[in-house]
Design goal:
disordered N terminus, 2 domains, mainly alpha, two-stranded antiparallel sheet, about 0% strand
Length: about 400
């Protein structure tokens, strides 16, 4: 999971940043804090190898890095345990209850990267979250599992939310239809649909109608703000006739969903949320999909680029116009800050010290998104196979 600091980010981005409006009460089956998943997991974690446990074998820099990492792990454990206890006992949660969890997770990953920079021998094996081993000790996987579990609870959709029984197909169908209306042929429109599904996973891990535990502004299946949603609705109205000409069945479905949503916040109807988010940020870029596919043949890179349109829209559009997309360099401190607030060049002193990066380096640094986009590709292949049957 990846998150974003909305205090400075220009628009909503990535999943892991999910909303809960204060005050919040969450009722679930009671589990005593001592028997919580995190408590059971902590006893199995070991952060100091026998060699590292011998002070004489470490330099001061290495020893300080080890101490900082151990403190970061303990702090992450503590905050996870605190939030779990609050939820299990139905306590009132603080405003933005996910913020402290997010910062503690980042501190742990950062501290481990600093440790492995000081002690490269501590770079371990792979982990189930596909985080580069230099940034993550696989023995702390239970902590990230609990982190995700807590966000799932805190970001639960409101009771009024209108779900879809076909959430993934809806995203693909809308992305494809919008691309056709923008003039793309069938093959390139299919690519736009695939990219759209990647954005759904990037924003919410493929969960529909969710809130946001780190922001009181961004909501729904694509994590949009009120102004973005309104802008998308206006753009959809302008293109609706063209949509109907290409796909009358989809247009009729849209009429039904619009009527169903009524006066509900359209971000909590999955269909209208996806539709308006795609129209707001991505529809105007869809005509460039053929050129993007040529420049970035890897489907995951294509998804990453469109996610960057969410995070740093103006520089990404400039890079697309430059004629040398992957070599286009970002050096503005504010833009670098936006990237860091979205878990790109965030972890460890060396990454945070970067003052510039090319788009190729940015795409490579978006490793927290890789599992999300891989899930999206798998879902897309399933949808495509069903349509052929």
């Amino acid at each position: 999971m990846g998150t974003i600091s909305y205090a400075v980010a220009p628009t909503a981005a990535l999943a892991l940043v999910l909303f809960v409006a204060p005050p919040v009460f969450i009722a679930i089956d009671a589990i005593s804090p001592a028997d919580s998943p995190i408590s059971r997991a902590i006893g199995n974690l070991s952060f100091i190898s026998p060699a590292m446990g011998q002070p004489g074998t470490l330099t001061k820099k290495q020893s300080d890095a080890l101490s900082t990492y151990n403190d970061a792990v303990k702090n992450f454990e503590s905050i996870l345990g605190q939030r779990r206890a609050q939820i299990n006992s139905n306590q009132r949660l603080p405003n933005l209850p996910g913020q402290a969890l997010y910062l503690a997770r980042n501190n742990m990953l950062s501290a481990y990267k600093d440790l492995t920079d000081a002690l490269p021998s501590k770079i371990g094996g792979p982990n189930k979250y596909e985080i580069p081993p230099a940034y993550f000790n696989a023995s702390t996987e239970p902590l990230l599992a609990e982190y995700r579990n807590l966000f799932d609870l805190m970001q639960a959709p409101p009771v009024s939310a209108q779900k879809s029984d076909t959430p993934f197909e809806d995203v693909v169908d809308l992305g494809t239809a919008i691309a056709r209306a923008k003039g793309l042929d069938a093959a390139n429109a299919e690519a736009a649909g695939r990219i759209s599904l990647g954005l759904f996973f990037a924003e919410t891990n493929g969960n529909q109608n969710i809130g946001n535990a780190r922001s009181n502004k961004y909501k729904g299946s694509f994590q949009t703000g009120p102004s973005e949603d309104q802008n998308g609705r206006k753009k959809w109205a302008a293109i609706k006739a063209s949509i109907a000409a290409h796909d009358s069945a989809l247009s009729l479905r849209d009429d039904r969903e619009e009527a169903r949503a009524g006066y509900l916040d359209h971000r909590f109807n999955h269909w209208t949320s996806v539709r308006d988010a795609l129209m707001n940020a991505h529809a105007d870029i869809f005509p460039q999909v053929p050129a993007i596919v040529k420049k970035l043949p890897n489907p995951i890179d294509q998804m990453k680029l469109f996610e960057l349109i969410q995070i740093i829209p103006a520089p990404t559009k400039s890079a697309l116009r430059s004629g040398s997309l992957v070599n286009y360099r970002i050096s503005d401190p504010t833009i670098m800050g936006y990237l860091r607030n979205n878990s790109i060049f965030t972890f460890g002193q060396a990454d945070r010290a970067r003052t510039s990066a090319t788009f190729r380096e940015i795409l490579d640094a978006m490793w927290l998104f890789n599992p999300k986009f891989e899930q999206a590709l798998a879902r897309f292949d399933e949808i495509k196979a069903r349509k052929k049957d």
